[in-house]
Amino acid sequence: MQLQREGLKPRVSVLCPGFVDTNILYSDRNRPAEFADASTPQTDPAANAIRERAAAELKKSGLSPRAIGEQVLAAIRDERFYILTHPELNPVIEQRMQDILTGNNPAAVPSPGLMQKLNALRPR
Asked: Exposed/middle/buried for 110, CB within 10 Å: 0-12, 13-18, 19+?
């Protein structure tokens, strides 16, 4: 706002990605040992199994970083503020915004309607 008052035209975009096919679930491999979470063993089989399932889902349904980058470049060229990479998630975003506007607290467990929308997005 201040920049606009000074006659400048800042251009900003906000990237709101859905699933992206990356190795972010393995980012702990980059964490220096002195910052590791000592309370969670690195070889916890249950945690590893969950991570592997999530990584497989990302590989299946996530967009490539290149595809995300192309969307970002197009949005910058078009001077779009929001970059929503997965339009099929719009109903989920809409429900969240409706909850905010009506003052509903975020649900610890998504509503059945929201879960139905999310399940409909899963690849078959």
From this structure: middle
DSSP structure string for 6-54: TT------EEE---B-SSGGGGGGGS-GGGS-TTS-TT-HHHHHHHHHH
Q: Give residue 10's pLDDT.
A: 75
Q: How many domains does the chain have?
A: 2
| Integer-rounded Cα radius of gyration of the chain | 19
pTM: 0.65
Query: Do 77 and 41 fall within a single domain?
Result: yes
Q: What is the pLDDT of residues 16-27, one digit of tens each?
A: 998 888 887 777
